[in-house]
Amino acid sequence: MPKQKKIEPLVGEELLKKVKELESLSKEEKAKQCGYYTVTKNGIERVNMMKFLNALIDAEGIQLDTSPNANGRGGRSASYRISVQSNGNLLIGSAYTTQMNLKPGDQFVITLGKKHIRLRQVDEDEKEALDIAEATA
């Protein structure tokens, strides 16, 4: 019996994209197509659904296991993914601002690209120039 080459399990965006491509298949077949299976000594393929489902949860940025922070409460961590809210706003959560040591009042210049938004923090000299420009307008 020829040995079948096992593919490396997909993760992250690759996994999400592949699952969407395979939407008509069963969840077991999706897991198998994404590399979440093993072949026994007898040549039987076994699908590892737990690893597949956990990889999907991770790829979606959902944190089920949170370690409590200093005050004993579980907090959110940055998933590096956000969605546009129903009112059209994008909310950048405190997980990001904390990680970047940002403080209330910090200012940014927003640059829009075709498929991205770039934020550049305004330095003190720029901030003074913007304040003066706003005051004279």
From TrEMBL:
PANTHER family: SLL0359 PROTEIN (PTHR42182)
This protein's UniProt keywords: DNA-binding
Statement: the UniProt record of this protein carries the keyword DNA-binding: yes
UniProt lineage: Bacteria, Bacillati, Cyanobacteriota, Cyanophyceae, Nostocales
Protein name: AbrB family transcriptional regulator
Keyword DNA-binding: yes
Ranges for domain SpoVT-AbrB: 79-124
